[in-house]
Amino acid sequence: MAGRNKQPLQVIQGKGRSNHLTKDEVNKRQKHEEKMRGPTENIVAPSYLTAAQKKEFTELAEKLVALEIFSELDVDSLARYLDSKHQYLQLVKDMRKMKPTEIIEHPNGKKVTIANENYPKLARVKNTLFNECRSAAADLGLTITSRLKLVIPTPSTVEGRSDAQKRFGDRL
Fold it and tell me: What pLDDT, on the 0 to 100 scale, is given for residue 4?
């Protein structure tokens, strides 16, 4: 199925759409998902991060482990996200000190405004770092939209609906 992301079994069951799965398929899928989670016992910040980055790494890792969407396999991804985030923030600070234009005074006393040659280059780097951060954050579940895709509906709300509500949803 090209183009369609596979949903976790809990999401499918929570939506009440697991009727097409046999018990055997459900068991296989549960076992497969358990294997794919990865261990969470030895999550340690990589040594190449600064002290501040390591602190932020630990805080984010704890929150992501609590959501059950983070494991030891994701350590490098989170470290790369933090590294590009800190580079982005440093670049933004530096660019705020810099002006996009410069005023040059000619020998005859006339003032001319010209564009700063470095500003457009830094703006492109800033844009690249921002895109890196955004995609890494989405992959790790750090954005609201990526977390909403991970929300697992409770089966009790699906089971508590009448036949008409199941067929027609909120259109009643």
Answer: 64
Tally of CA atoms within 13 A in the half-sphere of 21 that contains its CB = 16
Which residues partner with 112 through β-bridges? 104
CA distances from 152 to 2, 90, 96, 114 (A): 23, 37, 42, 55
Which of 48, 50, 79 minimizes the C-alpha distance to 64? 79
Interval 1-15: pLDDT, tens: 456 666 666 666 666
The amino acid present at 21, given as its one-letter code, is: L
Alpha carbon of 97 to those of 88, 91, 128: distances in Å?
A: 15, 10, 20
Read off φ and ψ for residue 103, nearest 5 degrees: -105, 120
First to last CA, the chain: 33
The alpha carbon of 119 is separated from its chain's Cα centroid by a whole number of angstroms, namely 29
